[in-house]
# Entry
Amino acid sequence: MQYKLDKPVHGTIGTEKYKCVIEWRNGKLIADEPVNNGGKDEGPDPYTLLLSSLATCTLVTLRMYIDRKGWNIPEIAVKTNMFQTKQGDETTTYIDRDISFPQPLPAEQKDRLLEIALHCPISKILEGEIKIRSFVYHDEEVDKNIKYKNDEVTVVWKPELCKHSGRCVTQLPQVFNLKAHPWINVNGADAQTIIDQVAKCPTGALSIQPKIEETK
# Structure
């Protein structure tokens, strides 16, 4: 399992309705709800962010293709919007993507660019099978915990909190191997690499025991 982003998108919200701070690899942006939903409209709402993803992916994909072909198309425009219909218990979401070129283009060139747009990565994600895996972090004490340690690092595993996200075994298999016994080999990598990987555990099933606790 290899994540698309080296640094995950990180969002936080305080008590101010409904201002969210979204941190990405190179900065921060504000997301909010419109006034009619109780927000202050200080940033794009979740639907706008979703549609913006499709619009930007389409524009970038088309620009890459146009540049590779050497075509003289200085500007591309995309509008995205969505609506939903409901029949019984089934809700169907429709996303409309309108592509236009301010300058005149031959019909066959427009049709080819439409084909390319249909294959942009975000289009494939939205039209493919999506599974959302959700985890919540627990830092409370539990009845059972198992420690794996050497002179430099102690990894604590809480089996009852483990939801098997797969991050440890796929991203650092030389340390985390479900087929081995014990399944955590703290000598399989340097201490900092292990600490960094354990920090990615989404449930709190894996944690690092501070050195100060080990001396008690």
Observations:
- The two ends are 38 Å apart (CA to CA).
